Amino acid sequence: MLSEGSSFFKGVALGGLFCLVLSLLGSFSSPRANTEQHLHHHVMAPSNKDLQDLPEDQMLELTNKVRVYCVIMVTPKLLLHWVATNNTWSKHCDRPVYYTSETSKVMEAVDLQEPDEWARMRKALNHAYENAGDLRWFFMARPTTFAIVENLKYLLIDKDPSQPFYMGHSLKSGELEYVEYESGVVLSYEALQRLVKIFKDDDMCPERGRALWKVSEEMQLAICLKYGGVFAENGEDANGKGLFNSRSVQAMISESMTQNPGNVLEACCSDLAITFSGMSPSQMQVMMFGVYRLRPYGHDFHDSLVFLPPKGSDND
Ligand SMILES: *[C@@H]1O[C@H](CO)[C@@H](O)[C@H](O)[C@H]1NC(C)=O
């Protein structure tokens, strides 16, 4: 009883904080204002300048509040990627959980014993929902993806997880807008809650496809979410560059070198990118070094928020 009561008050306090922050952010006149009418399909992080004006204790509350449950979909076939993911970016998730199609002797995971991709994704998301505890954001990725979790948290900081968010790199197929699986899928608690409910309705969201052709799991997910009134949104930075990438940094830089030889890095990728994909295990280690270890001594990035590194970690 007592713990229920205290979590209720915690909820009220957090809710209050949210309103405060939202109204604070809303009251700044930001360059985002003119994109507001498109907000449904394009999501951006708040501007750094807006955040700088927040009092320190509120910033601390904010950074502690955004906590991410990582749903990492693995198979023993991708063991080397799995090990690399385990040793690199997933350490920055507040809770990294591996979901596998079959048991691996080397790695610990929730064994779903399910070869079908779509059925496995459903089981994993059900499991994540049931084990969410007080975590309110979910990030689903494959082990070939490299994610910079702090940048994801920055994108989410002014978003309310009791609203239905479904974000990543959104693509269109006919009438359907869906989030590409390869570059990572973000779901708020509310979106996941609606989804789990729809999973139970076999007419709207069947576990085994009835269509003559196979619908990919990323599209299945979008179809089921759509029944719950949850629509795909594209994560972008202030310049409209995509934050979720289905390609590796190397591939993106190579392309930029041919298309923008005078301005390779700026044209290539967002400085606040959240994912890159299609990486080899060694490229993932290179990323880890570049993102979390290598630093130009004395350089100041003027960031307003600090997301603390995982417990017990030296610097990575
Ligand atoms: C996976 O990560 C955990 C936590 O960082 C670590 O204890 C474990 O040794 C890792 N497993 C492998 C096989 O690298």
How does this model look, in words?
- One of its GO terms (molecular function) is glycoprotein-N-acetylgalactosamine 3-beta-galactosyltransferase activity.
- One of its GO terms (cellular component) is membrane.
- There is one protein chain.
- The chain has 316 residues and is α/β, with parallel strands linked by helices.
- It has one domain: Alpha-Beta Complex (Spore Coat Polysaccharide Biosynthesis Protein SpsA, Chain A), CATH 3.90.550.
- It is built from eleven helices and twelve strands.
- The strands form three sheets. The chain has an eight-stranded mixed sheet, with helices on both faces. Strands 6-12 form a two-stranded antiparallel sheet.
- Helix 4 links the parallel strand 2 and strand 3.
- Helix 5 packs across helix 7.
- The longest helix is centred in the first third of the chain and has 26 residues.
- The N and C termini lie far apart (40 Å).
- 2-acetamido-2-deoxy-beta-D-glucopyranose binds next to helix 4.
